[in-house]
């Protein structure tokens, strides 16, 4: 019992050295596996030092490049925290968004899988705290040209608990992802993604047709304004080209 603080500090230091200094990940997965059992036995209410360990050590472990080698164990540890104390869901979700991969699609698929597990243990109040940045990121995932990322994001709508959270907060969620859904319908190259998008779109229409129509109207107005701006830009360039031609600049190179 008396050695627990020392052991926790030693594990923390190993994680910190890996994240911020060496990048050597040997043994990280095994340590996380042991921690999973320890976290599972945490007494409630959870101590502040345990919450600090989540925020300062476990969440930053999502940052290193070799996260795939230990992600399964890391995801289990993080999910255990949320299942023990659902109020930590906001901290975890914002942490995932902070370290969200930009160019690594396979890593992004792993993050989406972990995010779904966390959302399954998330209650409505915590969901509402982070749903705006969360669904901005999900919208980007929906439009990802890598079909596995887009498909994995669309699978969220197969989860009853997540669908319930979305339905309760549809007035916030749908406007955030409507454009992404429409872009997938109009132009995503993958048929499976296209089909899943149609199903999600239909689900929103059935839940709240009035809201769906309002989002569609706003989207069409936005697209019309964008086309108008593009037309004006082309007209401006055409006028400049005509003026240049009149002044003897007919040999201008088109850009």
TrEMBL record:
It comes from the Eukaryota. One of its GO terms (biological process) is signal transduction. It holds the Pfam family B56. SUPFAM superfamilies: ARM repeat. PANTHER family: SERINE/THREONINE PROTEIN PHOSPHATASE 2A PP2A REGULATORY SUBUNIT B (PTHR10257), SERINE_THREONINE-PROTEIN PHOSPHATASE 2A 56 KDA REGULATORY SUBUNIT GAMMA ISOFORM (PTHR10257:SF3). GO terms for cellular component: protein phosphatase type 2A complex. This is Serine/threonine protein phosphatase 2A regulatory subunit. Gene3D superfamilies: Leucine-rich Repeat Variant. Transmembrane segments: none annotated. GO terms for molecular function: protein phosphatase regulator activity. It comes from Gossypium barbadense.
């Amino acid at each position: 019992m008396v050695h627990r603080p020392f052991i926790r500090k030693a594990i923390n230091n190993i994680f910190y050295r890996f994240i911020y200094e060496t990048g050597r990940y040997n043994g990280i997965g095994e340590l996380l596996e042991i921690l999973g059992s320890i976290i599972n036995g945490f007494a409630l209410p959870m101590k502040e030092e345990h919450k600090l360990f989540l925020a300062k050590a476990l969440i930053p472990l999502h940052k290193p490049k070799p996260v795939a080698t230990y992600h399964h164990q890391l995801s289990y540890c993080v999910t255990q925290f949320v299942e023990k104390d659902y109020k930590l869901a906001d901290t975890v979700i914002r942490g995932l968004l902070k370290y969200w991969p930009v160019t690594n699609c396979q890593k992004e698929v792993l993050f989406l899988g972990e995010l779904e597990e966390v959302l399954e243990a998330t209650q409505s109040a915590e969901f509402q705290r982070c749903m705006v940045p969360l669904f901005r990121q999900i919208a980007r995932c929906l439009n990802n040209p890598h079909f596995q990322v887009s498909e994995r994001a669309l699978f969220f709508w197969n989860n009853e608990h997540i669908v319930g959270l979305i339905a309760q907060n549809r007035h916030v969620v749908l406007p955030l992802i409507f454009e992404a859904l429409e872009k997938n319908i109009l132009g995503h190259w993958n048929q499976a993604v296209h089909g899943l998008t149609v199903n999600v779109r239909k689900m929103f229409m059935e839940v709240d047709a009035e809201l769906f129509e309002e989002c569609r109207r706003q989207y069409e107005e936005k697209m019309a304004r964008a086309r108008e701006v593009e037309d004006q830009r082309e007209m401006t360039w055409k006028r400049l080209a005509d003026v240049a031609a009149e002044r003897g600049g007919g040999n201008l190179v088109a850009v």
